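Subject: complex prediction, re-run

Hi both,

The earlier run crashed halfway through, so I resubmitted it with identical inputs.
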Amino acid sequence: MAKKQIVIDPVTRIEGHAKITIQLDDEGVVEDAHFHVTQLRGFEKFCEGRPFREMPSLMARICGICPVSHLMASAKACDALMAVKIPPVGAKLRVVMNLAQITQSHALSFFHLSSPDFLLGLDSDPATRNIFGMIEKYPDLARDGIRLRKCGQEIIAILGGKKIHPAWVVPGGVSEPLDEERRDKIVAMLPEALEIILRTLDWFKASLKNYEEEIATFANFPTLFMGIVGEGGLLHHYDGKLRIVDSARNIIKDGIEAHEYRKYIGEAVEPWSYLKSPYFKPLGYPEGIYRVGPLARLNIINRIGTPKADDEWLEFRKLDRHAVMSSFHYHYARLIEILYAVERMNEILHDEDILSTHVRAYAAPNCEVGVGMSEAPRGTLMHEYHIDKHGLMKSANLIIATGHNNLAMNRGVLQVAKHYVKGKELKEGMLNRVEAVIRAYDPCLSCSTHATGQMPLHVQLVDRRGTILSELKRN
Amino acid sequence: MTVNVLTLTIDDQQVSAREGQTIMQVATENGIFIPRLCHIEGLDPVGACRLCLCEVKGTPKLLPACTTKVSEGMEVSTSTERLGEYRKMILELLFAERNHVCAVCVSNGHCDLQSMAQKVGMDHVTVPYRYPKLQVDATHERFIADHNRCILCTRCVRVCDQIEGAHTWDVMGRGEGSRVITDLNQPWGDSETCTKCGKCVHVCPTGALTEKGRSVAEMAKQRRFLPYLTKMREEW
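This time it finished cleanly. Structure:
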């Protein structure tokens, strides 16, 4: 049997476009596998020359699923350019919107994209292995998912005026304070969301025993984990400092401020993907592999900080002696984060000062460089802006959550392919598992590819006998 | 002083007018809306944008309502199917000529170009966009000039000249190379004639001239000052 390549194109039920290639040897055994991101967005380039105050709205256009996450990181970068401390209530309102975003995005990933794998089976008919198949067979669960996502989206709309790309988050804070009527409307939506998430957690935990093989093989390997932790090491998606832990949960580095990120994070480029591969600089490339996102966040914190989510977290922690290693548990972590988001939104909205009208700080640009960092649903999001003295953008560097996970996704694809894919007796279910490991990371690829012109290109013209006839290199 | 009163028809409606009034003025007084972009009450009309073109019986040419004086017995049509198509085409060309990115514009939701497109039903641009590379001038301490959003209506030029009396703004170049400029094409921040009054910003129909510090969709223009100032100028 000659060498063969299996191509999965496109990878389904993810956000954005990607393909996976699996190389088989002469015996049909998996030799190597790659996860390719096949599109380029270029936001880093076309923001150049624009006034920095446009950035939150412009950068939010990177994504229709998690625009709010980009709004947060971008607005924080702009706050840094203005060198302002935003009013506390402005920050709290941003936090509520960010948590609503986490809720809706996690619900989308879990219910709409991944639950068909759990409920209908990884080997079931791909024609019905989707949200519509779910609605038919498990209408209650599908309804829960849709209701939960709606709750998150509605809160974003109530706060920001619209569900997608609200212009409410502005440099210096938010543009409008919250009033009593809208606050009460949001608070009234939360009990149903709480019921749904508790119900889903119970069901998911009970079903984990059915996936022991997947748990053991879905990107289950030691890596570093990175994310933002709030004060006291509590879970925080909006504000805090970076922490990096190893697979034994030892803190490798703590207290990294947003503007210091380049000291610790390098960005490698591979010729087969538009997605860059960030790595932890002190360990080098590719040894500095780390993971971000819900699993990483629950691995790095001291505790969550809300009662019910803390109970769930303690149970989650028992999955592994050290850090929870299997990327299959991203799903589990996502559910716990939704629970936290619902509890935390309720707490914040009951704060006495939440209706304060002082929600925005005003200033001219005072710094030429600003870095904003927040936790998007998929992990740590970084926006770095450079402006001229008049406030026009000179350059931007974006590290998107999905990018941080690139190395781990590639290694995960290889692990799953090696375990499941047998070239001689290829079945659809095998390949679906390769896709499912990517789904566990919930990548948002449309978000994550922005730079061009830096890709080292290496083209070889080779004849039938393998002799190199011509070679071109660009670095 | 006696004023001759004329009678004419606009869109089959019998109306009376004072001699010397334009079709635009008479239509507005009688509640008939004619699309316009370069025209704004309080500044001299220039007939530049061609959106207010009307059909006048007995005249083969289309005439701009903002500069055409009414005459006795005139029969004017302001909203025929042909005019509607022309207006859509003009707006399409305006959108395609420069980089009007409404979604992230500070004037989103408060823009005359945008609302005019909605009014005449222009929902697609069928000609290719030109994507010119244009400057954003942020050198002024209070204002920003973004040539990507400019439609060359010259409202800024006229208000600066006729109301403020500074004549900081003017137009240079020809055709697609035309630009509004400050002084002798110097950065706005270096202009010695600019009084920083901000009238140009507030008469600008789009997000081309805006106040610094505004975020997306926050730049609502205040124009109520213009008729008062014009009246004061006339009376004094």
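Chain A has 15 helices and 16 strands.

- K.
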